[in-house]
Input
Amino acid sequence: MEHGYVYELLRKLGLSDFQANTGEWLLVRPLKIVAILVAALILGRIASRAICTAVRGVHRRSPLLLNSPRAEQRASTVGDALGSLARAVIWSIALLTVLSQVGVNLAPLLAGAGIAGVAIGFGAQSLVKDFLAGLFILLEDQYGVGDTVTLTDTTGTVEDVTLRITRLRAVDGTVWYVPNGEIRKVGNASMEWNRAIVDVLVPYEADMAKVQAAVKAAAADLAADPEWSDDILEEPEYWGVQATSPDGRTVRVVVKAAPRRQPAVARELRGRITERFRTEQMPLPRASLPASP
Output
């Protein structure tokens, strides 16, 4: 066993080998343990701050995310989570080092942990995949609670987002649990703005000039209504005839709406168009075909 300066000093002071060994252990080992703990504390803080800075840097590089307060909050949350993980790793290493200082044989412990880690790694590949995908979903702010999204072939309102799964509630009330690792394509109908698209089927005998005037007037009235001013972002656009069928011609009007307000704007516009047709004694639409839920 190798001895250090303290042992040699105690021997020169006349202590026996046992007394010198005991004195060295009592004086040196506690100092080493304290040094290890202090180093772990400092490294943990440095790693946590570095990770948070890196996450915020990724966040700032996306012009879309700069305009999203929710994304800023999520970037902070992800940074804190990763920082906590880094601190846990550092403190785990520090604990093992401390155990080695007090004489615990780490070889069997590390061998067992290595075998267990390999087994867990093979069995938890999909879980790791879900966690990594969830991390990027949160970091990139692809969607959040309350958004109406389409995940692959499932459409609904997001009720919860974790690192492992996303919970959606469909229009019929069905709750879907989608593993984040299985998500290949995301369509978010609640980000920044979307269009309320209203298709109106009118009979062939209707005067198309009057139809256009009535639809535009109904849309203009909606846009001018103070109760809807926050929901309508631009002047409505009349896109004209979009299709023909044996029942008549389909005309379309679109309104740029605020996030998550598209369905309400579309419903209100349909009602106003129908009322305008009735007031002006025009042939009522035979069908109103919503383009969105």
